[in-house]
Amino acid sequence: xxxxxxxxxxxxxxxxxxxxxxxxxxxxxxxxxxxxxxxxxxxxxxxxxxxxxxxxxxxxxxxxxxxxxxxxxxxxxxxxxxxxxxxxxxxxxxxxxxxxxxxxxxxxxxxxxxxxxxxxxxxxxxxxxxxxxxxxxxxxxxxxxxxxxxxxxxxxxxxxxxxxxxxxxxxxxxxxxxxxxxxxxxxxxxxxxxxxxxxxxxxxxxxxxxxxxxxxxxxxxxxxxxxxxxxxxxxxxxxxxxxxxxxxxxxxxxxxxxxxxxxxxxxxxxxxxxxxxxxxxxxxxxxxxxxxxxxxxxxxxxxxxxxxxxxxxxxxxxxxxxxxxxxxxxxxxxxxxxxxxxxxxxxxxxxxxxxxxxxxxxxxxxxxxxxxxxxxxxxxxxxxxxxxxxxxxxxxxxxxxxxxxxxxxxxxxxxxxx
Length: 418
Description:
By secondary structure, this protein is α+β, with helices and mostly antiparallel strands. It folds into 2 domains: 9-30 and 48-213, Jelly Rolls (Sandwich); 220-417, 3-Layer(aba) Sandwich (Rossmann fold), CATH 3.40.50.1110. It contains 9 helices and 24 strands. It has helices spanning 9-20, 231-234, 246-254, 279-288, 302-306, 314-330, 351-365, 376-380, 403-411, and strands at 28-30, 49-55, 60-62, 77-84, 89-97, 105-107, 109-114, 129-130, 139-141, 145-148, 152-156, 161-168, 175-178, 185-189, 203-205, 208-209, 211-218, 224-229, 259-264, 293-299, 334-338, 372-374, 381-382, 385-389. Strands 1, 2, 5, 10, 11 and 17 form a 6-stranded antiparallel β-sheet that branches. A 6-stranded antiparallel β-sheet has the order 8-7-12-4-14-15, with no helix packed on it. Helix 3 (246-254) crosses helix 9, helix 4 (279-288) packs parallel to helix 6 (314-330) and helix 6 packs parallel to helix 7. The longest helix has 17 residues, at 314-330. The relative contact order is 0.14.
């Protein structure tokens, strides 16, 4: 995008939004369609580009008749999703998903706002915006499809909270969700999307509903790093609401130079479907399809070993890594591979699992699969018992790192490798 000299701030932003509106916005996309906007190849001060600031991989269809506050599709209600940003920008666009829906999803109103200080469901004064789709404020998303909004002018904060409020007038037939969000979002009866106050949002939900990505228009960030993984990346044992997952800590370390997008799914595998499609199957949508992506960090594979009797040989996991890395590099990405963390003491971490984990880690460290290595194994293990997590990093079940462990994982990623 050309840099426009001499325009006042408002006029320049209007010009940028007018140009951006022509690029992949307000359109329906099939689930396997890429919507990847390349990150700027010129110095960051010379151009503005779309870069992802937040993402959540779609996991499953929720039961449409579930109770309020559960991971269910709240038809006739408004869900106010709370999302934490990785980078800031001058405008935003959102992606809604009906990937697991069995019927068209009708959306009657969507708004975007910066969360008010102090938490809760209230919007910061003057920040609430209606979100259009191809110029309209209503939309219908076919089963299996995504919908990208038009750009919305909004000062999006770096390392802050946004709220995407979505009203669905009818019961959702299998609403697409990301459960185990480790973030409280809110539910209200009726259409409350345009209310600044959070007083109507009397119910809570631990899942993100419908929204799967937020991009920002930025001239500062150089691109996005996507972490694709399982529950260790999803942050299962980190503190709820604290944004203490290892990708959050990595984002803090990078300080806005790159965004860090969390494509983790608890229970996810590399090779096969379990909780959500396998990492190889969802690579195009959840990684290659993210805006401005430059680098992918691959941190998945332990569930392939733990979920017997379907556990594959270590050689199959290594071969899966090679296929994933080759596909990502074919798209021009840099690929960082993470070793598998210790699991000794976990109920499913048998001697066979530990042996396969060691074989896989040795293959990753040899350096002929990935462009760089993040050695989570060495970072987290107990020096006196290398098959176990160090006590300071153990989240309690001998598999998932707690907050200190997540911080330590982020330190194992060399920013120069990105």
